[in-house]
Amino acid sequence: MSETKNFVPFVSASAEMKEFSFRAVFLGALMAMLMGAANAYLGLKAGMTIAATYTTAVIAMAVLKALKGTILEENTARTVGSIGGNIASGAIFVLPAFFISSIWDPFYSTSHYIISTIILSVAGVLGIMFVTLLRRVLVEDAELPFPESIAAAEIHKSGQKGTGGSKFLLSGMGLGALFTALVEFKFIAASWQKIVSFTKGSLLLRSPGMAPAYFGVGYIIGPKLGAINFSGGLLAWGLLAPAIAYFLNYNNPAGVSDWAVEITRVWKAYVRYIAIGGMLVGAFYTLYKMRKSLFEGISRSFANIKKTAGGGVVLERTDKDLNMKVVLPVLSGIAVVMFFIFNYFTGSAFPAAVATVVMIFLGFVFAAVSGYLVGIIGVSNNPTSGLTVSVLIVVAFLMIALGMTGTAGIAAVLGVAAFTCVSVSVAGEMMQDLKAGHILGCTPWKMQVGDIFGVVSASIIMFFILSLLHLGDIKQSTGNEIDKLKSNNTATVTYKGKNPELTGKTFTLDEVKAMPPEAQNDILGTNAGFGGEKLPAPQASLMAIMARGIVEGKTELILIIIGMFMGAALIMMQVKSPMLISVGMYLPIDTSFAIFIGGLMKGIIDKVIEKRKYDEKQKEKISNIGILLSSGLIAGEALIGLLFAGLAFADIKIFHMFEQPSFIGSLIAIFVIGLFLIMVPLKKKEE
């Protein structure tokens, strides 16, 4: 159903206004890199990403207003900038899986950078081309509310009236950066834990992690989802891990020297596989709940594709997409590039051709689905990982049918998953941006070209960002472990990794230090990097385990099946978000605890709003300010986190205030962040 004919954009179709300028595209490209880095950092640590639309809208408005820019230039910059966050979403969901599944070990190399950049760039452009074919079908559908598009457009409109939120965003970034730096300098503790012993047992107490980004995430998702996520953490760390650890050591409990370490080991070796089973069921249940919307989106897209691509009609400025004479050759070129990439992975032309055809077909179908779902629930709730897992399973069984096994088969499956994930993620964000541009009166083809710049900008740096976080975490963890061993006068270490050929072998510390970072991590058992304690990367771990499990039949199948039954039970109990419970189980407890605390902060504001009976306008202002402050906390921590990861990567030692910092300072910091997120929105609601 097309929208009513009396729709009038904010800037009329006949208006001549600067829109696709160098400064707008350049600013957008910088923001694409910034938001890509921030979402990569957050996604690897917490398994969640944030919609970049609001943050980039505020930055674009603040910068371009100072340069006397137009509202259409602001929209161009926001569109180009926000796509970077979605390149990150696609990247973190799949690229770390190449390392976790041992396909790319070590992770960083020139060839891996080239392959990753090609995948991200080509898949991103593919998503844009698909959306170009679908834009009129979805953007002009009056039945699709596009909630986040309307909100983004309203931010730009409010800027024309002299209001803006850049100061809230920047203040959040400053606070997030400050407290993250204090943790890195060991002025305050990152977390706290203690074993409390009783006559017939003991209790492991752990604090929320001192991470401003987690509090920001919790605030954005709210108290209900924050509590659901935390309940998964409590289930994993408060019941399953201790119970399994107890029964594993039932005959020799005295042999466990440190129960906190043992519980953590059990969580990693057993509970996380159960969580993966739950995530798998949760992903498919999410798709099942949306089945009507999925089928409507697919059927509508195929029914209108011929009409969409048709020419011969004189179109207004606000209705001009990229010309089909450009789109179709680009799609053909992308198919050729994809074939060569898949041929590189498989080493065989026929499976590569099959993978290319499957990717093009399913990519278009899921791009249509993604765009349609964004029109209903927004980018923040788009089930990208669920769609990607669906494609991964289909391709995995196809590879088996074609005789592809081992490393080549796993690499091919992950390659298709990477293309799918990025293209679907970009398609959803692009559709959301096009709707916001439609409301404001922007030119679609200029937005589509602008997003290509954003895709390429974010893709060029994304592998470096991932490598920096991965290797920085490993170098920091292994360096601390080696220093600890030296202080205890330990000269040799016994292998603690998963390679059975090295089990029991000893190495001197000098031998370990001379090895590559990933080898040090394996030998010392420091649990760092992708899939480790600080960078759990839950979606990538799910992709890696599913790909290897199906192609090679090597997986902790019993534990995953238990998790699937658990997920099914949660669904039958009508739990609001069974997927989020499983994610909470997969994350370290201090992460889900901190997200829960952030949700509590939002819950306090909700209660105050309810008690004081604010009107809708005041509620909207409070909500917008809170989101900007939270986004600032996330961006501030991400930028400082990347800085310190870079220092660790370069083997630059940083100053530490205390060897064992007190968590009292961290509690004070959490209290300050709470006051910041609660009091500022309530006080500034009239602005």
Overall description:
With 687 residues, the protein is mainly α. The protein has a domain at 22-170 and 297-470. The protein contains 22 helices and 4 strands. The strands form 2 sheets. A two-stranded antiparallel sheet has the order 1-2. Strands 3-4 form a two-stranded antiparallel ribbon. A hairpin with a 2-residue loop joins strand 1 and strand 2. Helix 12 (384-401) packs antiparallel against helix 13. The protein is globular. The two termini are 38 Å apart. 54% of the residues are buried. The model has no long low-confidence stretch (mean pLDDT 85).
Mean pLDDT: 85
Radius of gyration: 25 Å
Instruction: Give helix and strand order, one letter per element, not per position.
Output: HHHHHHEEHHHHHHHHEEHHHHHHHH
Report the span from N to C terminus.
38 Å
Task: Give descriptors for this structure.
single chain, 687 residues, globular, 22 helices
TL;DR?
The chain is mostly helical and 687 residues long. It has 22 helices and four strands.
What is this structure's SSE topology?
Layout: H1 22-46, H2 53-66, H3 71-100, H4 110-139, H5 147-160, H6 166-184, E1 193-198, E2 201-206, H7 212-248, H8 259-289, H9 291-309, H10 324-346, H11 349-377, H12 384-401, H13 406-440, H14 444-487, E3 492-494, E4 506-508, H15 509-513, H16 517-524, H17 538-552, H18 557-572, H19 578-586, H20 589-612, H21 616-649, H22 664-683
Antiparallel strand pairs: 1-2, 3-4
Helix pairs in contact: 1-2, 1-3, 1-14, 1-21, 2-3, 2-5, 3-13, 3-14, 3-17, 4-9, 4-10, 4-11, 4-13, 4-14, 5-13, 6-21, 7-8, 7-19, 7-20, 7-21, 8-12, 8-18, 8-19, 9-11, 10-11, 10-13, 11-12, 11-13, 12-13, 12-17, 13-14, 13-17, 14-16, 14-21, 20-22, 21-22
